[in-house]
Design a protein that fits this description.
α5 packs antiparallel against α6 and α14 runs antiparallel to α15. β1 and β2 form a beta hairpin. The chain is 71% helix and 1% strand. By secondary structure, the protein is mostly helical.
């Protein structure tokens, strides 16, 4: 049977026409999809601006399904999940990004940083720490170090916190001298409280004093350590050193200064220092210590207590009023304890310390706020004096 070439010649135009139609249909479909993907994306942005996060998530999921290679859509979706508290879904989005072989290095670093934030928000601190360490050498390195510093502080891992702070200091990301001194103090407290290792504690505190000579805590803590070892003379000298280096902290140790001064026969020197400080910055704690010192020196009770009256003439103080009235005779029998109890009850909230960063209040003084974790955010003054 002979093969007729005329059929081939006749079919070629038909095949060409069908191919052209198919290509036009594919281009049309591609144009439709390309128009729909941006439309879904902008629809998601519109929902975000109107604070409609549920609808925004649906729109971004639709956009991602239409264009799964667009990393920006994944980042937007992951951030939305994190903001809504859906940390598991945010982790899946960012881990999917990191698994892609075609992701640029910049986007890979960005996804790693976002994944670390997901773990942080979810409270998975071990996984967050591991994710943050992978950012060394990237554009996010300093941000990761700052976050790691906060993590180590929260876990009270002061050795790791010290190492990170030293790196940040060397990278010129701020002055961490005061914070490093606090870490040394924390390590010294651990060495003494847990191990009774006085030599290590003393070495750490000496290093802190040398590194941050104007920091109050190392000198105060050193004085406490020496006092516990019965080196009252050394403790007294360290408390005296607060005047030239950190005079604002003297109200915190005014009573201790009087106690140690009395024990070693240096009460006049302690009193003189406190009077100088009071003249520069009146304080209810300092005046209270001065009254104690005068009474220990043999001054009549009535004369010593006049210090409270003089203080109230300069600075109205319910705390000073309660302490003055504690030894004041009342004409009406039985009224004194009732009035005294009422005054002390009213003055108690005013005798607290308050964090200047978050407003956390405490009866005792903290070097690091238990509320916001800020360092030295408590002024060494009672709330009444603020």
């Amino acid at each position: 049977m002979e093969f007729d070439l005329s059929w081939i010649l006749l079919g070629l135009p038909i095949v060409f026409a069908l191919g052209w139609i198919a290509s036009r249909l594919d281009l049309r479909q591609l144009r439709i999809e390309n128009r729909q993907a941006p439309k879904a994306y902008f629809k998601g942005l519109n929902y975000l601006l109107n604070e409609q996060q549920d609808q925004a998530i649906d729109a971004f999921i639709e956009a991602v399904q239409r264009d799964p290679d667009t990393s920006e859509l994944h980042f937007a979706l992951g951030n939305l999940f994190r903001r809504r508290g859906e940390y598991e879904r945010a982790v899946r989005v960012h881990e999917h990004l990191l698994s892609r072989a075609d992701l640029s290095q910049a986007d890979r670093d960005r996804a790693q940083h976002a994944l670390a934030q997901d773990f942080l928000k979810a409270g998975l601190l071990d996984r967050a720490e591991a994710a943050l360490h992978k950012l060394d050498g990237t554009h996010y390195q300093e941000q990761a170090w700052l976050t790691l510093l906060s993590l180590h502080e929260r876990s009270r891992d002061w050795v790791q916190a010290r190492d990170i702070a030293q790196r940040l200091q060397q990278a010129h990301q701020g002055d961490f001298t005061a914070r490093l001194a606090h870490y040394q103090c924390e390590l010294a407290a651990h060495a003494w409280d847990k191990k009774k290792d006085a030599d290590t504690a003393r070495t750490l505190l000496e290093q802190a004093i040398h590194a941050a000579p104007h920091a109050a805590r190392p000198r105060i803590q050193m004085a406490g350590l020496l006092a516990m070892q019965d080196d009252l003379r050394g403790a007294f000298e360290h408390l005296l050193d607060l005047e030239p280096h950190a005079p604002q902290a003297l109200p915190l140790v005014a009573s201790e200064l009087v106690r140690i001064g009395q024990a070693i026969g240096e009460l006049p020197q302690a009193t003189e220092l406190l009077q100088r400080r009071y003249a520069a910055a009146p304080s209810v704690d300092v005046v209270d210590a001065i009254v104690q010192a005068q009474m220990l020196a043999g001054a009549p009770l009535q004369d010593a207590r006049e210090g409270y009256v003089r203080h109230m003439s300069q600075e109205p103080s319910l705390i000073a009023a309660a302490r003055w009235l504690s030894h004041e005779p009342f004409a009406q029998e039985g009224a004194h304890p009732v009035v005294q109890r009422s005054l002390e009850h009213a003055a108690r909230p005013l005798a607290r310390y308050r964090c200047a960063a978050c407003g956390f209040e405490a009866q005792g003084y903290f070097w690091q706020c238990p509320g916001c974790q800020a360092w030295e955010s408590f002024p060494p003054k009672r709330i009444e004096e603020l």
